[in-house]
Amino acid sequence: MITKIKKAIQYFSVRCYELKISIKEFRRGSKLSSDAFESFYKNGMLVEVHSVEKGLGLKNTKPGHSSKPVTNLINKMFGYIGRGYDPTDFAFKETYRVIAAYIEYQKEFDTSKFPEFAEIERKFNVLTQQLDSNLVASIKDDLNGGAHIVPLKELLHGKDFDVQSFFKTRHSIRMYQKMPLNQSDIQKAVEIANMSPSACNRQPNKVYFTSECETVKQIDDLITGSSGFKGETPNYIIVTTDRACFMKEEQYQWYINGGIYLSYLTLALHSLGIGNCIMQWKAFYRTENKLKELLGISSHEAIIAVVGCGYYQGDTKCIYAQRKAVSDTLHIVGVSDAE
Ligand SMILES: Cc1cc2nc3c(=O)[nH]c(=O)nc-3n(C[C@H](O)[C@H](O)[C@H](O)COP(=O)(O)O)c2cc1C
């Protein structure tokens, strides 16, 4: 009986500790700053415009759909300019591009049947006139909005690639050549990782990179998981996700979006011949503030991970890190008759 009570107390104290961390998480996420508010405004636009783009990508897109959110978004774009936010920012350009695609799509039908369309088009033209013509041209040239048909051959391209051996040859690396990564390699890795999916295509992640010796040393000193190989890592990447991009019941989605991004990024590094290791560190402690200060990370960004990386020294000692069997992981809970 006493051991049962002891175990219950132990279990309860772990949960209480987690509650303390949840409160810290809430405090970080709710700290008001003009920077956080701007991010919130932009991401509100991205969420709404995503629903318009999704409407354009449905099997049976209804002509005249989404007039309410489109009207709302045009008003928000006016508000955006009025607040002095940067119109070359992705959120603005993406919103503009999708609405332009929406208008192009509606014009394929008899728009006189959609009472709100004339006003939508008029307002959008007024907005366009207020923008720099080079910016408008570049949005149309550089970005795609709306939907397109992807050929089956392209969708099946993933089957041509031996993804299992690619995954199998990735290992956490804890020893590297003592040299900085080429900027072009890190840029390529981020370009690849930016293909990762995110909720409403908000792309709330940021990547901070440093190979500067003193900063690398300070990061090395701050993280907890490098015992036994401190001083061996020549480059660090910090992945963050902006909490201000999320709202209401999307609580903690920053960790989901950030975790997916982190996977893509580490695999992108692997595809470029760059060894890396995701490092354990303590969130919400003094280390977080120091890390943020060191790299200029905003308080509303959640640090997802610290990743050590560098070029391989040659053949490299790696742990086996045996994986579980499929049967330990997969639980098929129903099979349809068609199977
Ligand atoms: C969130 C996370 C934190 C990790 N933290 C550390 C760490 O602090 N130190 C370390 O040496 N490895 C760390 N790793 C690497 C894991 O030990 C490694 O992924 C696991 O053992 C599987 O081995 P593999 O990556 O070589 O396949 C971490 C991995 C993840 C995903």
Structural summary, described in words:
- Helix content is 51%, strand content 9%.
- The chain is of the alpha+beta class.
- α2 (34-56) packs antiparallel against α3 (67-82).
- It is globular.
- The mean pLDDT is 92.
- The structure holds flavin mononucleotide (FMN).
- Flavin mononucleotide binds at residues 171-172, 174, 225, 277-280, 318, 321.
Q: Could you say which overall geometry the principal axes of the C-alpha atoms support?
A: globular
Largest sheet: 4 strands, antiparallel
CATH class of the largest domain: Alpha Beta
CATH H-level name of the largest domain... which superfamily? Answer: NADH Oxidase
Determine the structural class based on helices, strands and strand pairing: alpha+beta
Strand content: 5-15%
Percent in helix: 40-55%
In this entry the ligands are:
flavin mononucleotide
What strand order characterises the main sheet? 1-2-4-3
Q: Name the CATH architecture of the largest domain.
A: 3-Layer(aba) Sandwich
Ends: how far apart? 50 Å
Which ranges are low-confidence, i.e. pLDDT below 50, for 5 or more consecutive residues? none
Overall number of structural domains: 2
Counting DSSP H or I runs of 4 or more residues, the number of helices is 13
